[in-house]
Amino acid sequence: MKKSRRIKKGVLQVLLLMLAIGALMVVFVNADPTGTSITYNVTDSGASASPSNRTDDGGTITTLVLNAVQQNNNWKAYLGNITGALTLDDSAGNTIFDWTLSAAGITGEIYVSRASSITWSSINCTTIATVGTEETALGMAGGNIDSIRSTFNESIHPEIVTAGRTMPANTCNATSTFVSDAREDQSSAMYPEVLMHDGSNLVYATPLNQDQTAFDGSSADFQLIVADDVTAASTTYYFYAEISG
Fold it and tell me: Which pTM was predicted?
């Protein structure tokens, strides 16, 4: 009888231990992306093109082929590197322990949104309704070649896990930014970018890709583009990250 009780007690202890471990795993996996701090900033607005000219004799007809490259003020880009740590903090920011991550070992994603607060428990691939709402808010016409829906017209991207929620590969609206001044094949793009939302707020997301070649041949951990409102002085975006080592 005592042996049977000891066995039952041991089984109960094992079950309780398994439940405790499971709870810890859920807390770790479902960690929400956190806001980031920006410690370095350089903004480049592009080069100014000098106009070409000709001096032709009167009484002549000259046929020209003109080429113009103009900066698109409906969009802006961000790229750079990331540092970080995993920590155990209280709500006041007091740390009981942390784990500093090596720059080369950080994995995860960068998220950018006009919203200063995201309901991460509801994060998912965006819908055309949310895209349309965002375009309207930024003064864009959905049918334009440079609208959000026209720009994110790809469907190939890697799987992304955000706050414990999985966006399977090739299920979100996607695009990718250039590498070494050239477009990449979407299926193997170094910097894929996808559109997500939390039911109301549009979120741009891109996986971290440590020390890879950026659009200008330099090195970056991430790069992405976001839409801008040309009718306003500037559009504010908030940056979030979900990292692991």
Answer: 0.82
